[in-house]
Amino acid sequence: MADKKISQLTALSAANLAPSTDVLAIVDTSATETKKIVAQDLINGVLNVASAVGIGTSSPSYKLDVAGDARSNSWIGRANGSAPTADCAVFRPADNSLGFSTANTLRANLGIGTSSPGQKLEVSGNQRFTGSQVGTKIENRNTGINVSTATTILDEAGAEGRVVIVNGANGGDRFCDLVFCSTAQNPTVIASFTAFGTPTARTYTRNGAALQLAMASGTYVVNALALGY
Question: What pTM did the predictor assign?
Fold first, then answer.
């Protein structure tokens, strides 16, 4: 029998192929001879599958369904319509680590609710933790609080009240205040520690739900740690 083109041949049912075979069997239209062609000879370039592909399963439930472990050097996807359309990737740059990249650029910071995080983890909005936080600086948002300028140091004073530890420094002049605040009343300084230098007077106020601080003079770098809801 003369050789025939692929278009002249009819594919056998997949059920007739042994799972371990690495060839694709076809039979000519006269059914007088079976020919075999290596599968990769038939697939060179883009493979377009209309429904779904199953690896290790004959009934895939997704576009690609793998029954078992899968490995890839990287995963690259296209963002959906509600997100930026730049390419993104999730990959493993080293053992026991996970990397994120967008627009073919490795990103060192992770943002939740923000597309331009300035810290290793930056969350735009409130956070709630049901477990313990150890060694965590809750807020370090101000590069400086100037003369008598009321500046927000905490976005949410808390409906049930929060205890806030506020510490600030201007060179050798340092202070640490323990402040109680809530959305129902003005803040109250419970205790104050000013053993280092001669820090200037401080005024705490509430602007809506936010706790604000104004320094009588000088420029202080201020951190705030809040506990409670």
Answer: 0.46
CA distance 34 to 51: 28
CA 125 to chain centre: 15
| Interatomic CA distance for residues 20 and 54, integer angstroms | 15
Q: How many CA atoms lie within 13 A of 62 on its CB side?
A: 5
Q: Which pLDDT tens digit goes with each residue over 20-76? A: 454 555 555 555 555 555 555 555 566 677 788 888 898 888 888 999 888 877 665
Question: CA 204 to CA 222: how far, in whole Å?
Answer: 13
Element (H, E) at 42: helix 39-42
Look up residue 135 and give its two tokens: 């060694």
Cβ atoms within 10 Å, residue 214 = 16
Per residue in 116-161, pLDDT tens?
888 788 888 887 777 666 544 455 556 678 877 899 988 888 788 8
Contact 203, 213 (CB under 8 A): yes
Contact between residue 118 and residue 103 where contact means Cβ atoms under 8 Å apart: no
